[in-house]
Amino acid sequence: MLFSTEILGYIAAFCTTVAFLPQAILTIRTNDTESLSFGMYGLFTVGVLLWLIYGIQKHDSALIWANSITLILATTILSVKIKNTLKKYLALKKL
C-alpha cells in the first residue's frame, strides 16, 4: 500500500509540475505578463515555497522535487511580472 501511495504522489507531482510548464515557457519567450495577476502569482509562489518546506520536513521526495521545479518556474514568472510592472509604472511616472 505504501508503495502505491508513493507512486501516486510522484504521478501527481509530475502532472502538476508539467501542467505549469506551458505558462512558464510562454512568459519567458514572450515576456508578456499583462494578463497575469500579480496577487495570484505572489500567493502561488509563497504557497509553493511552503509546500517545498513541508515536503522537506516530511522527507517526501515527490513534494520536494515537484515544488523545487515549480518554485523556480513561478519565481521566474513573478520576477518578469514585477520587472514589467515596474517598467510600466516608471514610464507612466515620466509622463
Question: Can you describe what's shown?
Answer:
Helices cover 88% and strands 0% of the residues. By secondary structure, it is an all-alpha fold. Helix 1 runs parallel beside helix 3 (61-94) and helix 2 (38-58) packs antiparallel against helix 3. The termini are far apart. 16% of the residues are buried. The mean pLDDT is 92.
Low-pLDDT segments, ≥5 res: none
What's the SSE pattern? HHH
Broad shape? elongated
The helix content is: over 70%
Determine the structural class based on helices, strands and strand pairing.
mainly alpha
Termini Cα gap: 64 Å
Tally of individual domains: 1
**Which topology does CATH recognise?**
Monooxygenase
Number of helices: 3
Overall pLDDT level = 92
Gross CATH architecture = Up-down Bundle
**Assembly state:** single chain
> Rounded to an integer, what's the Rg over CA atoms?
16 Å
CATH top level class name: Mainly Alpha
The largest pleated sheet is described as: none
Number of strands: 0
Question: Which descriptors would you attach to this protein?
Answer:
88% helix, mainly alpha, 95 residues
Topology:
Elements: H1 2-30, H2 38-58, H3 61-94
Helix pairs in contact: 1-3, 2-3
Task: Summarize it.
With 95 residues, the chain is mostly helical.
